[in-house]
Design a protein that fits this description.
The protein is α+β, with helices and mostly antiparallel strands. It folds into three domains: about 50 residues; about 80 residues, no CATH class; about 170 residues, Glucose Permease (Domain IIA) (Distorted Sandwich), CATH 2.70.70. It has seven helices and 15 strands. It starts with 5 loop residues before the first strand and ends in a 22-residue tail after the last helix.
């Protein structure tokens, strides 16, 4: 350690080199001065290179090159995701307008397809650190495409399931009137908002009312299982609900007599009840509802009120022969429909 603190200096008097000890403080001070001098020289050269001559540092040049490469890749990714977005939009339009319509399935709203993507800004931190905006936009668009693809995939799974049972769907969809169209009847209240006949305030009427004499036979409009049977003094009065599957249910209310029980399987054309005037009712009529996936829908969109009378009668007769139950409630076929009350055209 002592040798490192020695140095030799020339003595002009003796003309020889003599040993001279240097203190640690002097060595430290020299080292510090050398270090500070090096920094000042480096700063000076940086000023000359970047400030005076306007040249970029090698590191800056490298970073700019890498940034340009990533920017190009981001642009290509954005272009491809835009193409995927157009394809997904086309698939969703075809899904709602063709496939789901064929099987009577409700459309998937845009809000449902994009649910969970709005509201809280989950990209706030990324947006704050991404000055160019490329990464922020691409990450957000990728999440959106992932969500849309998932919803579309689930929709196609539902359509595929419906397609596999398309034969069953045809017999389950509520496609006929719940009563023989040859009887005397009139539609006393359509589906939609109306003034309540008892309380006289605006209210949504969730079905259709058909005024008719009590005791007319009421038929199942599609294959299904009797879900509930109720006998109430108010409200729907004597009523029943049939679950047809595939999201469809129908309700028949204000009945005089119910001829089926909960859990009983029924087919289209089976006599299930008689029309009446029970519950909250201002006159004898049948209240008929169609529900699809828990929502009330207009029965007019499903039942064919112009079905030929003989075709309807033959359907009921065929069911009576198959079940061995003769209700003898089907009215004879009217040859002249002008004698009937006005029917929906």
């Amino acid at each position: 350690m002592g040798k490192k603190n020695k140095e030799y200096v020339f003595d002009p008097r003796t003309l020889v080199y003599r040993e001279h000890r240097v203190s640690r403080w002097v060595l430290a001070r020299r080292g510090l001065l050398f270090f500070l001098g090096s920094i000042l020289v480096a700063i000076f050269y940086l000023w000359l290179y970047a400030g005076l001559f306007g040249l970029e540092l090698p590191k800056t040049t490298l970073l700019k090159k890498q940034n340009a490469e990533w920017g190009g890749k981001m642009a290509i990714m954005a272009s491809r995701m835009e193409d995927c977005r157009r394809r997904l939009d086309a698939l969703s339009l075809r899904d709602d307008g063709v496939y789901r319509t064929i099987f009577g399935m409700s459309e998937i709203s845009q809000e449902e397809r994009l649910s969970g993507m709005e509201g809280l800004n989950r990209y706030a931190e990324l947006r704050a650190s991404d000055h160019s905006g490329h990464l922020y936009n691409n990450v957000k668009e990728l999440d959106l495409l992932t969500k849309m693809a998932y919803v579309q995939s689930k929709s196609y799974d539902e359509v595929d399931q419906m397609a596999q049972h398309s034969g069953d769907i045809a017999s389950c969809v509520p496609a006929i009137p719940p009563f023989y169209p040859g009887i005397r009847f009139r539609m006393s209240s359509p589906f939609g908002r109306r003034s309540d006949p008892l309380y006289h305030y605006a209210k949504m009427h969730t079905g259709q009312d058909f005024a008719m004499d009590p005791g007319n036979p009421i038929y199942a409009v599609g294959d299904g299982v009797v879900e509930t049977v109720k006998n109430e003094l108010y409200g729907y009065g004597n009523s029943l609900i049939i679950n047809h599957g595939f999201g469809y249910k129908t309700r028949y209310a204000h009945l005089k007599m119910i001829l089926v029980q909960p859990g009983q399987k029924v087919c289209r054309g089976d006599c299930i009840a008689q029309s009446g005037n029970s519950g909250k009712s201002t006159g004898p009529h049948l209240h008929y509802e169609v529900m699809y996936k828990g929502n009330f829908v207009n029965p007019n969109n499903y039942m064919d009120m112009e079905i030929p009378l003989d075709e309807y009668a033959q359907m009921v007769k065929a069911r009576e022969e198959q079940t061995g139950l003769t209700t003898d409630l089907v009215q004879p076929v009217h040859k002249d429909r002008k004698t009937l009350h006005k029917r929906k055209k």
